[in-house]
Hints:
The protein has 203 residues and is mainly alpha-helical. It is built from 8 helices and no strands. The chain is 74% helix and 0% strand. InterPro entries: Gly_transporter.
Amino acid sequence: MLLYLLDLIGVAVFAVSGVLVAAHSGLDLLGGLALAALTAIGGGTLRDVLLNRHPIFWVRDARYLLVILLAAALAMLYLTFLPPPGHGFLIADALGLALFAISGAQIAEAAGLSPLIAILMGTMTGTAGGMLRDVMSARVPLIFQQDLYATAAIAGIVAYLVLQKLGTPRAIAVSVGVAVILLTRLLAVVWGAHLPRLHLITA
């Protein structure tokens, strides 16, 4: 049930981030809905294909699509009457990243896969939808920008897996994992933190 709720909340939050990007890009209502859906289910769809989980999660359970429609409609209604929050996109994206990364890692963990695969699947679940959103709206994907993004997801997933290994109750491990990703991502944006750059030595 906890995994299911994380998935639904992550879908809703990422759908909102898709609508915000669509609004900034000047797309129409249909474009906003398409971008919301692509953001919300893109990462999970790729994860399910790679893990051979069929039917894919949103085909098996249409409530995911209903959540996308509801979240996108509410976001569009809000933007019709009020300006978007100053950092609304970054907050929605960071929260979606955190929720999807942990839920993706849990799915791989429940399938009996190794911790390394759980980290990979969780990171991909959290980042692939946002990458598709940014590419389709002609933006540089956040994962390719300088501040921490995928690194934040990896840090939170590792924290979750370590706590699980130590016998910490799942709800606490999930909460800590989500918090690590969310805080790392937001602090990286505020402080401009990034991984060391590669440098070429020329003769």
